[in-house]
Design brief:
By secondary structure, the protein is α+β, with helices and mostly antiparallel strands. Helix content is 32%, strand content 27%.
């Protein structure tokens, strides 16, 4: 619930401005009695001045919000967009952090991952990771950025509660938890699934060793939905555990799935997916037949941010926000519009393409494929 003006509390903030950041020493609610408030401010002001610090007041629903509001004001005054708390600030006085939970697994049980973001210098801190992997921060950070997301600003902290002797298995869950803490993934849906997958630096979800055991642990732990590398989804379904198995090729696909669940969007069945893949394959064949001399043919899906290109007559590539596998989830009846290059209108009409009112634009439907 958002605090109203009558719910805001005045806080006293004590610390020291370092020019490019602020070292927080303490923060506490200001006394409501005017005389007591004046006396406290005077006393703290003398003590802070002796240590070359200062005393400020700011309103907020809690201590953390008051400090955030104060830092926003300091950014305006200093002209520094990255003005924040310094690493040596006392952050325990800000109160509990609203941690986000995600879940991974190993053959021996569930692995809980908690993440939170606090004001401060931009950094990623991971605690409790398996010592075998000496640089998880770099892999997770680069996997998120390489996957097309903006990495959160501030102090991003992740705590692994008993890694159960796995490391790479937890990449996907940790990345999703960080994005959820930044508001890019629905936290409640994330808490109901187990995410299993190793991230490459470009956000691709790679094959995992020991996946079967981790999936069995997820099932035994009461979870009924697992996100796994797409290349292993079939073998996970073959375990016969009755789980909803979601195969993802990229971090982007995992995030899209979680947010669709939050929005209540219906899922596409495996049969529909196969049919749509067949439709796209036939579309590629049609384009090759229609444009044998073309170097590139653009295909736009109406009402969707997707543009695919047949390059050199051999492959279908995605230039939009969604990956090409996401396009396979389109209904088979979707109309596709081709913006023609080296067009041959007679050939197009013979292949079933229909002219539109726009010059040089034809449509074809995959409804009967």
């Amino acid at each position: 619930m958002t605090a109203t003006a009558t719910q805001l509390t005045e806080f006293i903030i004590v610390g020291q401005c370092q020019g490019t950041g602020y070292t927080l020493w303490d923060v506490a609610p200001a006394p409501t009695d005017p005389a007591r408030r004046a006396a406290v401010l005077e006393e703290l002001g003398v003590e802070a001045a002796d240590a070359f610090g200062s005393v400020e007041t700011e309103y907020g629903a809690n201590a953390r919000e008051a400090v955030d509001n104060f830092l926003s004001l300091m950014r305006l005054q200093s002209g520094l967009d990255d003005y924040a708390l310094t690493p040596d600030s006392r952050t325990d006085c800000l109160g509990p952090v609203d941690a986000i939970r995600a879940h991974g697994a190993s053959s021996t049980g569930i692995v809980d991952i908690k993440t939170a973001i606090q004001p401060g210098p931009d950094c990623l801190l991971i605690r409790g990771w398996h010592h075998f992997d000496t640089a998880p921060e770099r892999r997770i950070h680069d996997g998120i950025v390489g996957g097309g997301f903006e990495f959160p600003t501030g102090i991003v902290a992740a705590l692994i509660d008993d890694h159960r002797n796995v490391a790479e298995t937890l990449h996907l869950a940790t990345a999703c938890a960080i994005l959820s803490a930044a508001g890019q993934v629905d936290r409640y849906v994330l808490d109901r699934v187990v995410c299993l997958g190793e991230l490459r630096f470009d956000g691709i979800v790679q094959r995992l060793h020991g996946l079967d055991g981790a999936v069995r642990s997820a099932h035994a732990g009461g979870y009924r939905t697992v996100l796994v590398p797409a290349c292993q989804a079939r073998e996970v379904r073959a375990l016969g555990l009755g789980l909803q198995v979601i195969g993802v090729r990229t971090l982007r696909e995992a995030v899209d799935y979680l947010n669709r669940q939050a929005a209540g969007a219906p899922e596409v069945t495996e049969e529909q997916s196969r049919a749509n893949k067949h439709g796209l394959a036939l579309l590629a064949w049609v384009l090759r037949e229609a444009f044998p001399a073309a170097t590139a043919v653009s295909v736009h899906v109406p009402d969707r941010e997707l543009v695919a290109v047949l390059d050199g007559g051999t492959a279908l590539w995605d230039l939009g926000g969604d990956s090409l596998p996401a396009a396979t989830r389109l209904p088979v009846s979707t109309y596709l519009t081709a913006l023609l290059i080296d067009r041959d209108e007679e050939t197009l009409e013979a292949l079933g393409w229909q002219k539109t009112e726009e010059p040089h634009v034809f449509t074809v439907t995959l409804a009967t494929l």
